Amino acid sequence: MPLRTYNPKKVVVVIGGFPMGGWADGQFLNISRATDAYTKHVGAGGDTSRAKSNDRSGEATLTFAQTSPSNDVLSGFATADEISDTGVVSFTVKDLSGRSTYVSGFAWIRKVPDGTFDKEITDREWILDLTDLDVFTGGNLQAE
Fold this sequence. Notes:
- The chain is mainly β and 144 residues long.
- It has one domain (8-32, 57-136).
- It contains 1 helix and 10 strands; from the N terminus they run ββββββαββββ.
- The protein has one helix at residues 70-84, and strands at 11-15, 18-19, 29-33, 38-42, 48-52, 58-65, 89-95, 101-111, 123-131, 134-136.
- The strands form 2 sheets. Strands 1, 2, 3, 6, 7, 8, 9 and 10 form an 8-stranded antiparallel β-sheet that branches.
- The longest helix has 15 residues, at 70-84.
- The mean pLDDT is 96.
């Protein structure tokens, strides 16, 4: 049986030309399409049809430790967008230990994180909206 390996350190995220890092422990990235690709319709007689959705938008949720410099970069994008509508950036994710890729030419901060402070390091969760999201969810590479 082949051995396949996933390495979270090899998940490369680049937003607006800036590589992201300083991820929180646990799930640090979630990318999803906004709608299903097709909607099924079954008539009273059992005939089935489907309607294709042309909505290729999506969202990404990124979770960083509060100490991550990526928070500064994303805060800069959010501030630029609030002041002058110039916070639309590119979004790219590539799993270098596998074949998954997620790319959007247009992304923006939908929601900045809540400011929470504790005696321990807390997480910062950023939500980005994405347009024309290209998705390839692949497997991971086999050991040689």
